[in-house]
Amino acid sequence: MHKLSERFKKILWLTIQSHIDLNIPVGSILIARRFPIGLSPATIRNTMARLEEMGYIKQPHTSAGRVPTEKGYSFYVNTLLEEQALPINTLLSDELSKRFRYIKTDSGMLIKEAAKTLSSFSNYLALATPPRLENIVFQRIKFIKYEKKKILTILISEDNVVKHKIIELDKIYTQKQLDMAANNLNNSFSGLTIKKVKEIIIYQLYKQKIICDELTDNLLNICKDFIPSESDDIFMNEISGTSNLPDFASMKQIKGILSIIEEKRFMLKLLNQVTDAKGTRVLVGMEAILPAIKGFSMVISTYNDNKLANGSVGIIGPTRMNYQKLIPIVDYTAKALTQVLSETK
């Protein structure tokens, strides 16, 4: 990879910033007129030609100015994240504080409100995922007799996250028997992360080291698949902001984005890329994740509850989005979520 000189960096930066601001191909004369950088249009033009050879910018057609490539945008974003002091949006700060003040005890509502606020401030599609279930601390499980062989299984975490599912056993059991089986499991696993619970269950079943009654053994086999089920729709509920999009996309593209986000495999692939990384990240051009969303980028940041569970909050918009404005908005939203969720523990 070419190492850019300071002049090349400056011209590239100004080309990208001008394209973001004006949404037109950028020429050397435009840069010379917009910015007092002490370089002639001819020098700027020659520099832009070299940047094009390096793959940072391109000409959409002959005699036009240049527009950034994904490589150019990646340079721009990395410079913002590493070198620029990004200011806090005080209006966003005030709005989040106001919305969070009344719902501090409901983590689900907090996450939804964060997404709604982020959408309204960015005018782009906002997305927020709850903390990953596998990192949540198991508190107890309860089995409630439903009908015939069917029972309602309720999993409750240390942070009062509730997951439930109706399952069918091989025979009919009384509620007293179900309670005794639940007590066996709770005594064994309470206080462990869901991920650890699943690992122990799989290991013990494989080694056949469980000495318990038939019902508990049966329920353990079911729990192996029930805890956790990352393909469930716990990731699909915090999406908002498809209106008032200035130059985001056509309605056809918006519908495509919504249908893609509803694909559980897409969400899981996305989460695997961002949830384990701390801080704010920018995915420039998302074609590598899913070809159907070429030309879009994501600004996303992780938040946590001051324990083990991480979630994500971010926006999806055109690659030509105002990163200088939007990176600090996403970053602050994630930090505000972390703070309020930690305070409620």
Structure summary:
The protein has 345 residues and is an alpha+beta fold.
Task: Characterise this structure.
By secondary structure, this protein is of the alpha+beta class. It has three domains: 6-71, Arc Repressor Mutant, subunit A (Orthogonal Bundle), CATH 1.10.10.10; 90-131 and 232-343, Beta-Lactamase (2-Layer Sandwich); 134-226, Enolase-like, domain 1 (2-Layer Sandwich). 48% of the residues lie in helices and 17% in strands. It has twelve helices and ten strands. Strand 1 (57-58) and strand 2 (67-68) form a beta hairpin. The radius of gyration is 25 Å and the shape is elongated. Residues 228-246 have low confidence and may be disordered.
* Overall 3D shape: elongated
Terminal residue distance: 47 Å
Order of helices and strands: HHHEEHHHEEEEHHHEHHEEEH
The proportion of residues in beta strands is: 15-25%
Q: Major β-sheet, in short? A: 5 strands, antiparallel
- Strand order across the biggest sheet? 7-3-10-9-8
CATH-scheme architecture of the largest domain = 2-Layer Sandwich
CATH level-4 homologous superfamily of the largest domain: GAF domain
User: What is the CATH top level name of the largest domain?
Assistant: Alpha Beta
What's the layout of helices and strands?
Blueprint: H1 6-22, H2 28-34, H3 41-54, E1 57-58, E2 67-68, H4 70-83, H5 90-101, H6 107-122, E3 125-129, E4 138-147, E5 150-157, E6 162-168, H7 175-189, H8 194-207, H9 214-226, E7 239-240, H10 251-261, H11 264-274, E8 280-283, E9 296-304, E10 310-318, H12 323-343
Antiparallel strand pairs: 1-2, 3-7, 3-10, 4-5, 5-6, 8-9, 9-10
